[in-house]
Amino acid sequence: MWWNKEKSTMVELANSRSILGNTTQPDQRSDILPVAPESISPKLSTEAVFKSLALFAVALNGSLTVFGYMNLAGYLERFGITLSELDIDIPTLMFQGYLTLVNGVYGEANKYPLFGPAALCFVFVLIAGAIVFKLLPKHSPDKKFAISMFLGTLFLLSPTIPFLGAKYGMKLAAEDYSSQNGAWPKLGLQKTHTIKTNNGDISGAVLFSTKSYTIILVKNEVYKLSNDTNRIVRKITLSPREEPMEKFLLENQGTNSRTDHD
Questions:
Q1: Are 207 and 191 within 8 A, CB to CB?
Q2: pLDDT confidence band for 17 (50 / 70 / 90)
Q3: What's the predicted TM-score (pTM) here?
Q4: What is the mean pLDDT of the chain?
Q5: What's the gap between Cα 147 and its chain centre?
Q6: Rounded CA gap, 193 and 64, in Å?
Q7: What pairs with residue 215 in β-bridges?
Q8: Domains of the chain, residue spans
Q9: What is the predicted pLDDT for the residue at 216?
Q10: CB–CB of 72/207 below 8 Å?
C-alpha cells in the first residue's frame, strides 16, 4: 500500500525570503522610486544658462573682431593703407571693435537726450527678455519681467565699466602734465610725433602702429616706417580726386546740345 511505513517521502524546505526575492525583477525593485521631472529641471536650466552664456561670449568676441577689422579697414583705406600689409593680432581687432561699438552706439544715443538712452535701454531689455523667457519658461510673468529688467540694465551698463579705468588714467595724465606745465588745456593737447629715419626727421600724427610698422601722416603725405630700422618703407601722397575726363566731356556735350537746340 502507498502508506507503507517502509516507504519514505522527502520534503525540501525552501527559504521564504529567497522565494520572495526571486519573484521581483532587478529593474522593478520597490526601493527604487521614479524621479520627478521637477527635480531635474533646475539642473537642465543651469546647463542651458551656461551654454547660452558660452554662445553669447563666442558671438560677442566674433562681433567685436569683425567690427574692429572693418573699422580699421575703413579708416586706413582713406590713407591708402590696406590691412593685409599689417600684422594685426586678434586682441587689437577686438579692442578696436569694442571702441567702435561703444562710441558708435552710445555716441548716437547721447545725441538725443532722454529718448536715445531710453530706446537703447529698451533694446537691451528686449534682448534680455528673449533670453529669460527661453531659459525660464516655468517662472511667473512678473518674475520674468523683473529678471529681464535687471539683465537689460546690466547689459546696458557693462560695456561702459572699462571706461572708468580709462577715465582714471586720463585724470592721472592730466595731473602729471599740470605739475610740469600749469593748468591742463581746455581743448586738450595736440600731439606731434618725430621719428628719425634714413631720410631725416619726420614729424606728424601717428595714424596707426603695430609691432613692425608705424603709419604717420605729415600734411598730405603718409609714411609707412619700419620699427626695426626706422626706414621709410612706403610713401603715399594724398591729393583731391579729380573728376574723370569722360564725365567732363559728357557733361560738356550735353550742355552744348541743349544750347544748339535752344
A1: no
A2: low
A3: 0.63
A4: 79
A5: 23
A6: 29
A7: 208, 224
A8: 46-180, 192-237
A9: 95
A10: no
